[in-house]
Amino acid sequence: MSSKDYQLNDIVEMKKPHPCGENRWRIIRLGMDIRIKCEGCSHSVLIPRKKFEKKMKRLVERAEED
Question: CA quadruple 16, 19, 23, 27: dihedral positive or negative?
Fold first, then answer.
């Protein structure tokens, strides 16, 4: 998984669901660390890029480009 596979505001599915039951996350910050926000309860988590790439299952929805 390279940085070209996902971008800001994409929705991704992680391997494990969030405790609220939702498994869809929106990418809201890219950098050395990636911040993702749960689509169910809006909780956000900051995780290192390497850990994110290991735990990401698939890209669900691409962000709309202007």
Answer: negative
Percent pLDDT > 70 in the chain is 91
**Residue 37's CB: how many other CB atoms inside 10 A?**
17
Work out the average pLDDT over 48-54.
94
Radius of gyration of the chain from Cα atoms?
Answer: 11
Side by side, the strands of the sheet bearing 44-48 are 44-48, 33-38, 24-29, 11-14, 56-61
- When pLDDT is cut at 50, 70 and 90, the band that residue 58 belongs to is very high
Domains belonging to the chain, first-starting first, are 3-61 (2.30.30)
- Which residues lie below 8 Å from residue 29, measured CB to CB, with a gap of 6+? 8, 35, 46
